[in-house]
Structures are given as C-alpha cells and as structure tokens.
C-alpha cells in the first residue's frame, strides 16, 4: 500500500474526509459506494464498490455471446475499468481504465454508434487504439453502473449495423436487470 502523507481525523459522528487528490486519482465521485473492510494487519481499507464486479463471470459469458453474434470484440466495463472481454486477448484490455470520454458517454445515459466514416469515434480504454463501434450504458436501479461496447479491430475501421446497435442495447438492459435482482 502506498503512503500518501495525508492524515485525517475522525469527527464526533465517525466520519472521515477522503482528500480531494485521492478522490480525483481514484475517480471517486460524490455518491459512489465504497466497500470498507479490514485486513489481518489491523488496517481499514476503503475500496470502490463495483456492482458489475458482482456479476463479472456472468458478464464475461455475455460478452462471449455478444462477440459471436455481432462479429466484433465485446467488452463490459464498470464505471472505471474493463471487467469482461471477448474477441481479443483479455490481457490487452482486462482491468484497464476506461477513458474520460467513455465515462462522460455513460453518464449521459445515451447509446452511441459509429455507423459510418463520419460517425463518432470514441476511444474506449486508456492506452488502447481501438474505439467504440457501438456503446450503451448499463443502468441498474436508476444509476449508471457501467457500459457494454462493441469495439473496432486493431487499426480497423469498423461501423455498427442497426442489428449490432440493438444487440448492445439489449445486452446493457439485460445486465442492468440482472444487477437489480
């Protein structure tokens, strides 16, 4: 664990303020759920909670089916990281951070598709040259929990068909419902 040199006191209601620098670095926003646990060394650990992480195995299977049906690589992301990949080597994308552009897209609660040369080319994952061909936010209990995407091949120009867009939208709606149960 990396020391930050920042010390905070607990107030009389048991609250502690997480410094702005740490919140910005860890992409912790107001209202984000945090998991709190302790380890054997007596440390109290705060970890961002990912509701999609609870269904990661299921999301991986869904990404495989989506990839096979759509013919493009498929990824499932929580609000910050890629949690499931199909159609390309997992080590290329798994656990990587999503781009701020993808975060904004998910927060807008709109589906986006690149249907031709003039369509939006949103970089989906930091440090990766692939872009989102079709993207839809996963909404569970009224909150944006992540995104599901079809992405371009490595260096390929790929465009989404109407069927691929509908597949991504259906996948996002289905995963959102699974998280609510």
Automatic annotation (TrEMBL):
It comes from the Bacteria. GO terms for molecular function: DNA binding; identical protein binding. PROSITE patterns: SPOVT_ABRB. Gene3D superfamilies: 2.10.260.10, 3.30.450.40. Residues 5-51 form the SpoVT-AbrB domain. The keyword Mitochondrion does not apply. Coiled coil: none annotated. GO terms for biological process: sporulation resulting in formation of a cellular spore. Keywords: Activator, DNA-binding, Repressor, Sporulation, Transcription, Transcription regulation. NCBIfam families: lp_hng_hel_AbrB (TIGR01439). This is AbrB/MazE/SpoVT family DNA-binding domain-containing protein.
């Amino acid at each position: 664990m990396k020391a930050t040199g920042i010390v905070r006191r607990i107030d009389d209601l048991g609250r502690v303020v997480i410094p702005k620098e740490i919140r910005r670095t860890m992409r912790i926003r107001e209202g984000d759920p945090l998991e709190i646990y302790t380890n054997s060394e007596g440390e109290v650990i705060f970890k961002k909670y990912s509701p999609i992480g609870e269904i990661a195995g299921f999301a991986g299977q869904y990404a495989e089916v989506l990839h096979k049906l759509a013919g493009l690589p498929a990824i499932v992301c929580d609000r910050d990281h890629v949690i499931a990949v199909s159609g390309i080597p997992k080590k290329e994308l798994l656990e990587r951070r999503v781009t701020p552009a993808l975060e904004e897209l998910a927060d807008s609660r709109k589906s986006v598709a690149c249907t031709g040369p003039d369509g939006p080319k949103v970089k989906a994952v930091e440090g990766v040259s692939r872009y989102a061909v079709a993207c839809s936010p996963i909404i569970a209990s009224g909150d944006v929990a992540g995104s599901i995407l079809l992405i371009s091949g490595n260096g390929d120009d790929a465009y989404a068909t109407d069927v691929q867009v509908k597949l991504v939208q259906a996948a996002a709606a289905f995963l959102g419902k699974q998280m609510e149960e």
